[in-house]
């Protein structure tokens, strides 16, 4: 009897942990598609005689609308006028919002902008001959740096420290791969730390 109960329990648990991720992924996809349609509907309504509510495949059309609008806005922002306008909006409207400049720097670095000085992956030399993964938030004029020490497997949480810049070794790696290693309890970070740029 105990063997049957153990078999049934193990089988149910095994099935549950296969079905649950599939259900969660399906839920996220469904919610994302609804969000895309919701974002694109006001844009589609600007075209006379066209409504996503009457479309046969509203999700597909909504996705195409958002891609086209993003492309047009992106092209406009690359022009001289667009760059100037974008900087003015950032300076007057967005920069005063708490956390905006931090998120801008992080997303630019995450997107592969090597010119972005903030959130550069690095190793911080610890007092007892160890090293810790870190992100350089800002370099100070006095030779120190503000660093963020992310925790693993939740790298969005961590601590800030102000350290001497000579305790930092920059890593010539994309921040996305660096964060992925932290999400996976350090797996893959060993290979990334071979690409060093000693300060």
Q: Which structural class best describes the helix and strand composition?
A: alpha+beta
Spans of at least 5 consecutive residues whose pLDDT stays below 50 are: none
What name does the CATH topology of the largest domain carry?
A: SH3 type barrels
Q: For the CA atoms, what is the radius of gyration? A: 24 Å
- Total strands: the figure is 6
CATH second-level architecture of the largest domain:
Roll
Number of domains: 2
Sequence of secondary-structure elements: HHHHEEEEEHHE
Report on the biggest sheet: 6 strands, antiparallel
Average pLDDT: 78
Ends apart, CA distance between termini: 66 Å
How helix-rich are the residues, as a percent range? Answer: 40-55%
Number of helices: 6
Structure, explained:
There is one protein chain. This protein has 199 residues and is an alpha+beta fold. It folds into 2 domains: 2-77; 115-198, SH3 type barrels (Roll). 52% of the residues lie in helices and 18% in strands. The chain has 6 helices and 6 strands, in the order ααααβββββααβ. Strands 4-3-2-1-5-6 form a 6-stranded antiparallel sheet, covered by helices on one side. β2 (131-139) and β3 (144-150) form a beta hairpin. The longest helix has 43 residues, at 2-44. It is flat. The protein starts with a helix and ends with a strand. 12% of the residues are buried. The model has no long low-confidence stretch (mean pLDDT 78).
Features:
six-stranded antiparallel sheet; 199 residues; 2 domains; SH3 type barrels; alpha+beta
Set out the fold topology.
Layout: H1 2-44, H2 58-78, H3 80-94, H4 100-110, E1 120-125, E2 131-139, E3 144-150, E4 158-164, E5 168-171, H5 175-183, H6 189-192, E6 196-198
Antiparallel strand pairs: 1-2, 1-5, 2-3, 3-4, 5-6
